[in-house]
Amino acid sequence: MKNMSFKLLIYSAVIALLAAQRLGVEAQSCQPSGHLRGRKPPPGKCKRGNDSECCKEGKMYPMYKCSPPVSNHNKAMLTINSFEKGKDGGGPSECDRQYHSDSIPIVALSTGWFNHKTRCHHNITINGNGRSVRAMVVDECDSAKGCDAAHDYQPPCDNNIVDASQAVWKALGVPRDSGKWGWMEITWSNAK
Ligand SMILES: *[C@@H]1O[C@H](CO)[C@@H](O)[C@H](O)[C@H]1NC(C)=O
Ligand SMILES: *[C@@H]1O[C@H](CO)[C@@H](O)[C@H](O)[C@H]1NC(C)=O
């Protein structure tokens, strides 16, 4: 009898643990708000280069209004973007409606992290490739919209993107001809 209740106790403990884990996962996950059907960019639109992707006719792209919750150690993908006029960045930066030089360390954050401009002109510390760099948030990497002129006919961003100027990539010491340039795992935190 004693043995039986012990088994029962272990069994309930395991069930409780699994339930807690499931709740944790649900709280952390950020689900798409919907899907966007890709449209073909008009002739001569969508500037290729720097790994930027152009929308494809009929392809369904997930849209996100959320990003993973912010901690002091946010896992993200670092991508590269130009913030200069007429380049692959689309319109001017969301924070100040201006274009910016790619030789200063600046970034765009996915919609959830950008959080309705609350991070505008705040600095983040990016850790990657064994180095760290401070960069200022100037723009949104729009996870909720895309495939239009304002987004240079590119699909919506993923929800975990830090889209950085080439100054950030240089500061992290990533060689331009390496496989990492333009797409690399990093962590970021709010700069002190
Ligand atoms: C790619 O990025 C570099 C540096 O950020 C920029 O000079 C170049 O014009 C960009 N290419 C395109 C097609 O936007
Ligand atoms: C972020 O860094 C820039 C450049 O160092 C600085 O001018 C700016 O004031 C900083 N932003 C905040 C909110 O501290």
UniProtKB/TrEMBL annotation:
Q: Which InterPro entries match?
A: Kiwellin-like, RlpA-like_sf
Q: Where is this region: Disordered?
A: 31-50
Q: Which family does it belong to?
A: Belongs to the kiwellin family.
Q: Show the ranges annotated as biased composition (Basic residues).
A: 36-47
CDD domains per record: DPBB_kiwellin-like (cd22270)
Source organism lineage? Eukaryota, Viridiplantae, Streptophyta, Embryophyta, Tracheophyta
Q: Where are the transmembrane segments?
A: none
What Gene Ontology cellular-component terms does the record carry? extracellular region
Q: Where in the cell is it found?
A: Secreted
Give UniProt keywords alphabetically.
Secreted, Signal
Tell me the first and last residues of the signal peptide: 1-27
A family per Pfam: KWL1
What's the domain of life for this entry?
A: Eukaryota
Coiled coil, from the record: none
Would you tell me the protein name for this molecule? Kiwellin-1-like
Task: Reply yes or no: does the keyword Signal apply.
Answer: yes
What the entry lists under SUPFAM superfamilies is as follows: Barwin-like endoglucanases (SSF50685)
